[in-house]
Amino acid sequence: xTLQTLTxxxxxxxxxxxAELFNATGIVTLEHEISPAESDRRARHTSKAAAxxxxxxxxxxxxxxxxxVLESALGDERASFALECRxxxxxxxxxxxxxxxxxxxxxGFGGTSVTxxxxxxxxxxxxxxxxxxxxxxxxxxxxxxPIGERSLSIGKARHVFVSADHPVRDDAHRFTPxxxxxxxxxHLIPSEWFEKVVVPRCSHAQxxxxxxxxxxxxxxxxxxxxxxxxTYGSIS
Length: 236
Description:
By secondary structure, this protein is an alpha/beta fold.
């Protein structure tokens, strides 16, 4: 766009200082009158952002965070959490007891939870093995059974594992989660794949969403969750 085109488009002549600024930087900032509708829209946006910020809370107590996640998963209101952790193994150690407990507590009515991870070998298989060990150690060794390639069940309850790098058409695609969806290593999962595969299955009104990851990856799923979730914190 030339200087003349910019002048015609804005219908505001550039003075000498404007022209010199444009020639030096290629950028010129012109003040435009804001319409009442745009002013109102901006005010509403600011008000919503302030209200969301006022209701957010940061926690670092591992036990309290675990209690809140469980209460949400077993409750009637949809909630979301963003939990920062240095590694996916920390997320697995934190989440595994909750996964086991939810399988037991929802076995009567058919609760379904899903864990989404970046890598089948690095994240999904270790998480599956950890859950099996936790279930057996809790005294339910004779109650659980495998369903499909990457899920296990107790009664009517089911926990499904999904890998971003190696998805398959199994239980993860045939069943809709109604208890909890965990996104482990959320900073490593491609946003496009997540929006296409995972988000459409997160429509249940009472679904709890938990994002585990590391900050710093601009535009990542975890960065968005960190800014938007009402409860956020760190686990170690």
